[in-house]
Write a structure and sequence with these properties.
Layout: H1 4-14, H2 22-35, H3 45-81, H4 85-93
Helix pairs in contact: 1-3, 2-3
């Protein structure tokens, strides 16, 4: 798991607020990667390559953070509701 400082830096680099949803995070990542793609900066490919790498790393940090807390929330939900894994699966993904 990434450190708190690394998560804050990643959110700042991507320009995200604390309430950003996963679709908003993905959209922001795609826009920044498009903006900083090395093919768009033929005059300064080194800087654009570095920025692309930073953006990519920040996105991975944010996704890891999101997945960790989604998993943690699901564990807490199971404990509170005393659900079997099958009941949890049905609640999460639907079905009869």
């Amino acid at each position: 798991m990434s450190s708190f400082d690394e998560i804050v830096k990643a959110k700042t680099l991507l320009g995200l607020n604390d309430k950003a949803t996963l679709p908003e995070i993905k959209l922001r990542y795609k826009k920044l990667m498009h903006k900083w793609h090395p093919d768009k900066h033929a005059d300064n490919t080194e800087k654009s390559t570095q920025m692309s790498a930073k953006i990519n790393h920040a996105y991975k940090v944010i996704l890891e953070y999101c997945k960790h807390y989604e998993y943690r929330f699901d564990e807490e939900f199971l404990e509170q509701k005393h659900l079997s894994p099958h009941e949890w699966w049905m609640n999460k993904f639907g079905g009869k």
